[in-house]
Amino acid sequence: MLRSALLALSLLAMPAAALAHQCPSLMAEIDAALPSADLSEADRARVLSLRADGETQHEAGDHAASEASLTEALEILGL
């Protein structure tokens, strides 16, 4: 019984662990899209600022804030 409970808990925790550090993949997506993006100078500056903020937040361990910043940058890029 204990074994089944531990297995169930570990299976529930796996998706959270997989999503916890998607910041690097979001940054890579921004980096790949930015050179060919058709953006105004203001939007380009905003994307670069959000990208930098996201990286700083990720390095500080604030992954929720990092993902929010990076997602906003992706939305500006139209992704």
Descriptors for this entry?
79 residues, mainly alpha
Can you give me a brief rundown of this structure?
This protein is mostly helical and 79 residues long.
How far is the N terminus from the C terminus? 45 Å
Helix count, DSSP H or I runs of 4 or more residues:
4
Average residue pLDDT: 84
What is the number of strand segments?
0
Dominant shape: elongated
Oligomer: single chain
Domain count? 1
Work out the strand percent.
Answer: under 5%
Largest sheet: none
Order of helices and strands: HHHH
Radius of gyration: 17 Å
Structural class: mainly alpha
Helix content: over 70%
Low-pLDDT ranges: none
Outline the structure in words.
With 79 residues, the chain is mainly α. The longest helix is centred in the N-terminal third of the chain and has 19 residues, at 2-20. It is built from 4 helices and no strands. It has one domain (21-77). It has helices spanning 2-20, 23-33, 41-59, 63-77. The mean pLDDT is 84.
Fold topology:
Elements: H1 2-20, H2 23-33, H3 41-59, H4 63-77
Helix pairs in contact: 2-3, 2-4, 3-4
